[in-house]
Amino acid sequence: MNTHVKPGIWRRTGNARTAFLYLLPSVILFSVFVFYPMFRTIYLSFFLTNQNGEAALHVGFENFAYLLESSAFLNSMKATVLFVLYTVPIGIIIALFFALLANEKLKGIGFFRTVYSSTMGISVAASSVIWLFLFHPSVGVFNRVLSVLNFPQIQWLLDPEWALISVSISTIWMNTGFSFLILLGGLQNIDEHLYESSRIDGAGYFYRLRRITIPMLSPTLFFIITISLINAFQSFGQIDILTKGGPSQSTNLIVYSIYREAFINYQFGTASAQAVILFIIILIVTILQFKFGERKVHYQ
Amino acid sequence: MTISLPKKIWIYFLLTVTSLLVFFPVLYAFMISFMTGPEILQGKFFPQSFSLDNYFKVFDRLPLVKYLVNSFVVSVGVMFGQLLVCSLAAYAFVFMPFKGRDFIFFVFISTMMIPWEATMIPNFFTIQKLDWLNTYQGLTIPFFALAFGTFLLRQHFKTIPKELHEASQIAGLSRFAFFWRVILPVSKTSLVTLGAYGFLTTWNMYLWPLLITTNSSVRTVQIGLKQLQSQEMSTDWGVVMAGVIVVIIPTLLLLFLGQKQLQKGLSQGALK
């Protein structure tokens, strides 16, 4: 150590050097398992690959061109967008409704809070298996209810018209627990005094909801909308167990499509191109959210 | 604040109905797990008897104990790995001012925008090259660094009074001693939140174990469920549901015990 020669620089960088040691584990792990594979994915998306996932033939943007012309991929994109539209708004509205109910100060409310958040403790795989049974054409509960009511039976997961809707219903159920927990936390952070003064003015429940609760909750809502959107684009487990992308590709969401292309068809180049598209979509969603969402958000 | 009686009744009514709807699938799965084949076909809700036959069968047909142990080892491993790696990083971000700190923090946060699924192909090959397929380290180490966790702990470390830091320096505590003996103990609540979150998400992980476990040596329960479901399809739903119940009990318990804590911690991390 040459502390005596250059005390200034050595001491001034002391913090940085120690800090680097503390940051090192994260830096290494992020480099190896996030940044390197991200660049590698982008790199591979310009190549045709061999079975070991190594770049074999440079094809420029042809993978992307191929995808944008492939009806299978366009169909997968369409299914993904529909799935996001089906699950995110309804899921958040339901979770918000639960959170508003569970925020009332009543006896035994803790029990209801636990029930509402329970789906967060149930894995995607377990939930999917349960829903697979609920959707079962003959012994499933939905068709039993329909038959009791004298309605025609629905082939929930087997009918291309219904499969995506069925998967969406089960996904909404799986996600309400987490959204509920976050929204309840947000509601509990709202200052009580705001309500008290409005109560004196004699404002009704819905007026207070619109004028106080929703604006004060907007940062939390903003957060949960972003997270839900990103989660929806990343859905995989429910597809793998409920439908395997079928029937006739109607539930082949993008992550499932990447998985199949890479690990079943061994087309790592086009799979990487799809992964790049997924990355870009999530990037755009996040940026749009921050650009337009942020303006409408009211921070305390 | 007082709520009028009719309004109270109305709220309790809504709470009860919606809770039943939310909990119905789990409750029904629980009931099915005690039923025999014919009972399920008849579409009953309550089993004739609460016999544990299906539970014995499911442990018989799958190496479920092994899968449970695997899941437990992996989840606890990720939990402690995340706590250590994230708290070290958060400590540096809060207590060591250095040039470029904000930039590095931004780089950390930017990893949140990269979906894991977009990087899984190269990650799979990395694990293969390291010869980590079918190993615990392959299932755990890639998840140790977590931007969300670093962020959450940083928010909490920031609330620790600076005087504590100065006092520790006067007392001659080394930086690491300060971190280990002062910072970590006073941040217990955040650490518990992050720990519960890490355990829960790892226990429930699906895609990664599906990719890198090709035999039952370190396979987790989630993949076990998939196996069970594809083996038993249409034949024995009682056994399948017994498997489901066994798999969800640990996380449900954890959630029931730590619901309040988790909610507080997560919404704090979300907002500040």
UniProtKB/TrEMBL annotation, chain A:
Gene3D superfamilies: MetI-like. It is a multi-pass membrane protein. GO terms for cellular component: plasma membrane. The keyword Membrane applies. Residues 77-289 form the ABC transmembrane type-1 domain. It comes from the Bacteria. CDD domains: TM_PBP2. Keywords: Cell membrane, Membrane, Transmembrane, Transmembrane helix, Transport. GO terms for biological process: transmembrane transport. It is found in: Cell membrane. The chain crosses the membrane at residues 20-39, 81-102, 114-134, 162-184, 214-233, 271-290. Its main location: membrane. Belongs to the binding-protein-dependent transport system permease family. This is sn-glycerol-3-phosphate transport system permease protein UgpA. It comes from Filibacter tadaridae.
Automatic annotation (TrEMBL), chain B:
One of its GO terms (biological process) is transmembrane transport. Gene3D superfamilies: MetI-like. InterPro entries: MetI-like, MetI-like_sf. Coiled coil: none annotated. Residues 68-258 form the ABC transmembrane type-1 domain. PANTHER family: ABC TRANSPORTER PERMEASE PROTEIN MG189-RELATED-RELATED, SN-GLYCEROL-3-PHOSPHATE TRANSPORT SYSTEM PERMEASE PROTEIN UGPE. Belongs to the binding-protein-dependent transport system permease family. This is Lactose transport system permease protein LacG. It comes from Filibacter tadaridae.
